Every structure is written in C-alpha cells, then in structure tokens.
Amino acid sequence: MQPIVVDRSAIQRAHQRTIHKYRSVRASSESAFSRHASAGPVSHDSPNRAESFWGGIPQVQVRRSNWTRPDSESRATLSHTAHQSARFARSRRVAHELVKSLLGILLFALLFTSSAAAQELDPQQPLQRILFGSCIKQEQPLPIVDAMLREQPQLLLMLGDNIYADTADMAVMQAKYETLAQHPEFRRLKAACPILATWDDHDYGLNDGGADFPKRDAAQRLFVDFWGDRADSPRRTRPGVYEAHIYGPPGQRVQIILLDTRYFRSPLKQGERRVGGPYVPDNDPTKTMLGEAQWAWLAEQLKTPAEFRLIGTSIQFAASDAGQETWSNFPREQQRLVELIASTKANGVVLLSGDRHWAELSAWEDAAPYPLYDLTSSSLNQLHRRGTPTENTRRVDERTWHQENYGLVTINWAPGDPVLTMSVRDMQGATRIEKTIRFSELRSNR
Ligand SMILES: [Fe+2]
Predict the structure, then answer these.
(1) pLDDT tens digits, residue range 259-297?
(2) Which of 30, 146, 287, 347 matches a 20 to 30 Å C-alpha distance to 247?
(3) From the CA of 3, how far away is ligand 1's center (Å)?
(4) Longest CA pairwise span in the chain (Å)
(5) CA 328 to chain centroid
(6) Fold annotation for 112-442
(7) CA-to-CA distance for 57 and 39, rounded, in angstroms?
(8) pTM for this one?
C-alpha cells in the first residue's frame, strides 16, 4: 500500500475554509428548513442518498509557486542554466517527496497509535450515561461535540458512516480516516470517553454496499486499526466488525452488541423508485442481513445474562418499508431477530440505529415477547435536506428531528426495577425525542 503524504497545514487551511462554508450554508439552510417544516411532506427525495448536502469535499492541494516567463533578451542566456536548474530542482523534488513520505508514515503511525490508546472503560463499572451517534462528514466541523461532552458520557457508540470514505482505494480511505483523526472536535470527543464502533455503507467503502464489495477485508483492517481494537480483538481475525461487551456487576449489567449489517449482506432488490429510495422487501430465503456466522454468534450473546442490552445496528431495524436501506428490505431476517430474542429469552433489548440523517423513534409493538424500541439518531454534522421523513408505520412518537443530533441513553439503577431513558438531543443539548422504559416492560417472561 502506498504511504499517504500528509500536508497538515493544507488540511488545516481546508478545515478553516469548510468552517466558513458550514456556517454560511447552515444559516441559510435553517431558514430553508423552517419553510420545509411548515410546508409539510414533499413528493421527491434525493436520487442518491450519499449526495452531500454541503456540496463537494474541499480538495487539499499543494500550493505551487507562481512561474514568470523570462523576457526575450534573457531567454538564451538562461537556457543552459535553466537546464541545470531543472535537474537540480528534480533532485530536490525527489528528496522532498521522500522526506514527506517518511513523515507521512510516521504521522499515520502516531495517529493510529493514539487511536489504540483511546480511553478504556472499566468492565465492572455500572453504565448510566451512554451516547450514540452516526454519520460524520469528516471534512466538516463537528460543533455538536460541545453538547455531547456536557453530557459527561461514560461511553460513546458510533453506529456507522463514521467517515464518508466511499472508495475501493484503500489509500484514499486511509487518508479520510486520517482527516477524522486530526479533526479537532473529534479529538476532544475521543479524549473524553471510550468509543465503540461499527460501520455502515460509507465507511465500509461503498454506498449501499454489501457482501459483494471486493475490498471489504482491506476496509475492515483499516476500520479496526482506526478504532483502536486490541491485538487480540476477534475483529482482527474473523470476517465482519460485529462485537459485544458487558459492563457492570450482576443486577446492573448492560450488554452492548454492535452488529455488522454490511460484510455479509445479500444484494438488495430494487423496484419502482419512490420517496425514500428504490429498494423493496425481498422474501427470498437465501438472502441474509447478518450471515450465518454472525447469527450464530448473536444467539450466544443473547443467552448471556444482562439486565439491559443495547443492540447497535447501523440501519434501522423496526422502521417499516422505507425504500432506502432498512431491515425491512429483508422481512425474514427482521422476523428472525424477533424470534431469536424470544427463543433466547433475552431481557431488556433496545435497538439503536443511525444512517437516515434524521432522528425518530420506532417500535415493533406486537413483537414477541415485548415491544422492540428502535431509536434512530443521525447525523452528527449534516442536515436532512428534505425535512420530511419517509413513511414509517412503526413510528411511535410524532416528533422527528432533522438537524444535527446525538442519542443519549441514561439508566437509573433503581433497586428492583431499573429505568432506562433514551433521547435524541440537538446541537444545544435540548431533548427532541424521549422515551422512558422500565426494566419490567422488557421482560421476556411477562
Ligand atoms: Fe448509511
């Protein structure tokens, strides 16, 4: 793999330009959003959901010095000297590029080493404040971090589209991870609390991509390096980035399960394009969302004792047929998870999702053995241009939120019947959507 040459000052200049652009576009979009919000549903959607609301990614370029053409009298005298100068300049350029390459390798190693040294959470510590979020455009400012840090989180779950790589070129993907690694607000976030992550299509490498993405293994290696997986992490040896952890002592255990909805996912079926996108439900029994290895692993995880279980899925689980990517594109797989929760008698499952560039609360209320709530938070630094969510018959709170947001799960470990509150919060930390559930409402034997 070619080393990445990093020009830090160029990246900083690009970042400053983007801050200006972000502020001006955000100011104008807020007024546009207000108009949308009052105008009600519209009959179209972005033809490509990867399309950037903010426009193109700023290019980081090496500035070239201006070249002045010599006048006619000087041209002849200069020709020999110019030839020698050109050779000298070429040698200097080669040496310069070599030094830059070495510095690039060193910087990349330092950045990723610092990822590995990210905060770690004591597994015995009861969790009370967990943040989650998704969809970071790595070149754009991330001012929502101020509100996130005021929450004093113990843990942050990143649910995918954590960068917009959108490439099969691993050198390009690596450079985009590096941009996030150097992002000042992201660095503050990472310094403040431990982070666990899974991926969605854009950091996987292909918009709406699945198992047929040929660079999935190479992308996984970059992913686990960036997120600082330990040397013995199973994600370094098995296909897919799914993982699970349990925090807290008996009686106060929270299980965190992060699914991989990309590595094994079968091709999606397309139908007539409608608001939301082109995908239609596919009942083909050979189609899979998680793949057999991950399903078998998940069954074992759900049998492990825990009071609450937060299942992070990059795409929405409970939302009804949307046209875009949700579990509803594979109804048999959706049903399989419901049945697995029932058969394993897993208490306390709550789903968290991202991807959509808006926030909403869905619930599969008639799912056995208890309602499955799915709180969607997206995006951390992008707006939803259309301002109207796709139809969702399982939306259980009429409030939706289309500006920058993050999710917060708090747990009050009240003796006997702990209480979980999950909310979506905006750039100022104000609550936009909220749901409180008692542990006794999520019991499999009720
Ligand atoms: Fe996505």
Answers:
(1) 999 999 999 999 988 888 899 999 999 999 999 999 999
(2) 146
(3) 28
(4) 97
(5) 20
(6) Purple Acid Phosphatase; chain A, domain 2 (3.60.21)
(7) 30
(8) 0.79
